[in-house]
C-alpha cells in the first residue's frame, strides 16, 4: 500500500485504512510504539494482551545514575494530612 504524508496541526501524519488496522487488531485510540530502524519507520502494537509494561520494562534502557531526593512542597494549603 502506498500513502501520503499530510500536515496535521504542527505535525505530519499518515492515514491507515481500517482493513490494515483490523489485520493487526488495532482500533481508534490504541497505543502504538513508533521507532526508526535504518530507513524504515516501524509502528508496533503496544501492551500486548492488554498487559501494561512493568517499571523494569519501562526503564530497561535507562543508563544514568538515580539519586532519590525529597521535594519540599511547602506548607499544607487545605485539609491535607501530613
TrEMBL record:
- State the UniProt keywords alphabetically: DNA-binding
Domain of life the protein comes from: Bacteria
On whether DNA-binding is a keyword of this UniProt record, the answer is yes
Among the GO molecular function terms of this UniProt record, one is: toxin sequestering activity
Annotated Gene3D superfamilies: 2.10.260.10
Query: Which PROSITE patterns would you find in this protein's record?
Result: SPOVT_ABRB (PS51740)
Pfam entry (one): MazE_antitoxin
Q: Mind telling me which InterPro entries this protein's record contains?
A: Antitox_PemI-like, SpoVT-AbrB_dom, SpoVT-AbrB_sf
Q: Which residues form the SpoVT-AbrB domain?
A: 3-48
In Swiss-Prot or TrEMBL terms, this protein is called SpoVT-AbrB domain-containing protein
Q: What is the lineage of its organism?
A: Bacteria, Bacillati, Bacillota, Clostridia, Eubacteriales
Amino acid at each position: 500500500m502506498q500513502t501520503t504524508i499530510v500536515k496535521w496541526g504542527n505535525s505530519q501524519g499518515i492515514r491507515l485504512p481500517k482493513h490494515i488496522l483490523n489485520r493487526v487488531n488495532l482500533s481508534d485510540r490504541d497505543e502504538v510504539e513508533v521507532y526508526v530502524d535504518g530507513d524504515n519507520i516501524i509502528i508496533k502494537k503496544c501492551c500486548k494482551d492488554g498487559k501494561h509494561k512493568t517499571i523494569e520494562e519501562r526503564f530497561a534502557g535507562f543508563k544514568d545514575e538515580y539519586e532519590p531526593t525529597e521535594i519540599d512542597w511547602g506548607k499544607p494549603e487545605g485539609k491535607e494530612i501530613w
